[in-house]
Amino acid sequence: MATGRRRGRAIIYIALILILLLVLVYAVVRLNPLGRATTPKGGGDKGTTPAAVPTQVTNVENIVVTTQDLKRGQVISDDLLAVVAIPQEQFTEGVFFKDKAEVVGSRAKFDLKAHTPVTNALIVATGSTGSILSFEMEAGKVAISIPVSQLSSISYGLQKGDHVNVIASLLLVDLDTNFQSRLPNRTGVVIAPGPIGENQTNITAVFNSPSGYEVGGGGALSYLGRVELDPSTNNPVFVIPSEEQRPRLVSQTLIQDVTVLQVGNYTQEVAVVEQPGATPTPPAARNQQQAAAEEPELPEVVTLVVDPQDAVSLNYLMLSGASLNLVLRSAGDDSRVDTEAATLQFILDQYRIPNPAKLPYGTEPRLDLFPESIPPFPDPGLVPPPPEGE
What we know:
Type Iii Antifreeze Protein Isoform Hplc 12
């Protein structure tokens, strides 16, 4: 038993010695790797200094960058540009500009941040006749302007880049197919030429009344009506309309998810420079001009980016007098929802609005139109006091 224990301890001691030797060898190699020369203390010349490794020089190319933030449409001058060097492997021939003179005088297509490399895709070249707006549309799209008001433009809250739906509203009437005029037609009297009786003259039709035809006797011709049976006497009567045909209103979503390209008129900022020798503008007049320039101008048109066929449809609706309304979409929402056309019958059915019954009583005073304002309640001082004893 004692002999076995001694052998086990010996093995443990040998293992510890081997581990210590391995650690010592690792430390020597780590602190003084193979091939590194050491310099003896005292600064003698017995050691050698490691040779300096030459730095590899990378080929570079010069490119033009912006030095300040630029606004869309701003003319780029020399002081807004700088030339910097980039590695040659990052340079693409025909994309970047090497000389500032090639960029000076051009205009920025978009808002550019400072230190942005200038490329052909970011500027409108000097002397270009194309509009900046045309560079902001996708291929295959067209821009069209439509009139707007406070109610049809989200209370003038639309901004460039918003996405909207277009709702069209039409007033429809029935027409005579041949005449292409609004129904019902009017009736006239046709009398054969020649005398029709003693002391009577021939009657001819006259077409000079703005409200309808007239005959020689001065009476206006009536609408073309229909024959109905009187429910009380069961006799046929000729019924004519009491007024012209009422148009029927219908509204429907025309186009969905279109982009607002411009709100209001597009104007380019032009600096006003007074000519030498000209009479300077008085301070009061200059203040009035500045105040007028600072007053916001409410937009009358909005420019939309649409498909060519949608542009033709919008053009037709504008020329036909239709009402166009814009509704704002949520940011990032690209969904499309099928909507039903809104008519009087749809509103009554969809929102369960009943047709009021004809009652034997009514309110007083008579109400034919909605009042422009709510009338005030009677003044309590004008109400007579109650009789005494009550």
